[in-house]
Design a protein that fits this description.
Layout lengths: L2 H19 L15 H16 L3 E4 L5 E5 L8 E7 L13 H15 L7 E7 L12 H6 L5 H4 L9 H9 L15 E9 L4 H5 L3 E3 L2 E2 L1 E10 L3 E2 L11 H17 L5 E3 L3 E4 L5 E2 L2 E10 L2 H22 L2 E10 L2 E2 L2 H15 L12 H5 L5 E6 L15 H21 L3
Helix pairs in contact: 1-3, 1-12, 3-12, 8-9, 10-12
Bound molecules: zinc ion (ZN).
Zinc ion binds next to loops.
Length: 416
Amino acid sequence: MPRSTLAQAAKDVARRLEQLARVSDERGATTRTFLSPAMRRANALVGGWMRGAGLSVREDAAGNLIGRLPGPSRGSKTLLMGSHLDTVRDAGRFDGALGVLLPIAALGAARDRGLRLPFAVEVLGFSEEEGVRFSSAYLGSRAYAGRLRKSDLGLRDPDGVCVAQALSEHNGRSRPLPKPAHARGELLGYLEVHIEQGPVLESRGLAAGVVPAIAGQTRARVSFTGRAGHAGTTPMSLRRDALAGAAEFILEVEAFAGRRPPLVATVGRVSAHPGAANVIAGAAELTLDVRHPSDKARRAAFAGLRRAGRTIAGRRGLVFAATVTQDDGAVLCSRELTALLERSVRARQGRSLRIPSGAGHDAVVLASLAPVAMLFVRCRGGLSHHPDEFVSTGDIAVALEVVVDFLARLASEHPR
Ligand SMILES: [Zn+2]
């Protein structure tokens, strides 16, 4: 297919992303949260683009937008492609939306190229991934995969509205918990195109790379307890300074992870009590976030950091405690689909790069329903969740060509 046609299609995607970014619940910023008025308008806009590409469009009970291109026969298997249409507050225009608009353009480009797909395709715009409204992520993809739990329906937003209420207001009636949209055997896989949200591709001078695995996460609340005291009258040798212990621990977390790539570990928040300039801190609380593509390595790292915390506390006469608040396993992407995607990336840019995803994505949930693969696209400075988030139109064209090539390879491997 001529590069000029793809370049034009990429420009169309860039223009649509700009247009979609103006669909917002807030004036002057891009904000779309689960089942909000802006999400309704976003689904109408994107649904129109899906229809234009020949897809039949519907919305499921959880507000997910689904565009379907039928296969050649009733028993045809289905390939899923998509990402989320909700955003964080004051978001950029690429996170999520790129992974919905790019597949629509890829199907158009494949058709123009005369590619007849021997399978059905569903393009998905998930209604909730960011966890903004109900402080719980993946509500959209979990509903699609039939993994919404009864307890999720009781979650409340800051206005006191619960998920069940929001859903029935959105649908005009209450419905039971959604069932999985597909049986696993019906699906070929799920491909998610997403901005990298990190600096690796940019540092290697590459437009696109593949994701072999999505890291698991352990989050914990950590505390050091010592004894508060007067900053003027307590000699240094008699102190049990909880904040100094916490400081030593923070540096140890950094050094520990630094010696064990691709492990990443972060203390993102710290508070001292009583928190006065002239009082030695009697207690310090911190958050700890540990991520690794291997669950075994992540658990070992967390155990190691816990031991390090105890050692530091013991030496300083402090008490150390760590409570796990979140523990999500890693998700391995499909070896077959990833290898195929890698060939498409190599065909376009000469080489490919495997980047484990440190951030969670809808693919984490879809992995319970189908084999998954992810394509990462370079974003400027690795910046995301910010209005300055940026992907060049040239890089969109590369990703588009990769996805069209992937569809062609998948079609040629598929039994007709
Ligand atoms: Zn995202």
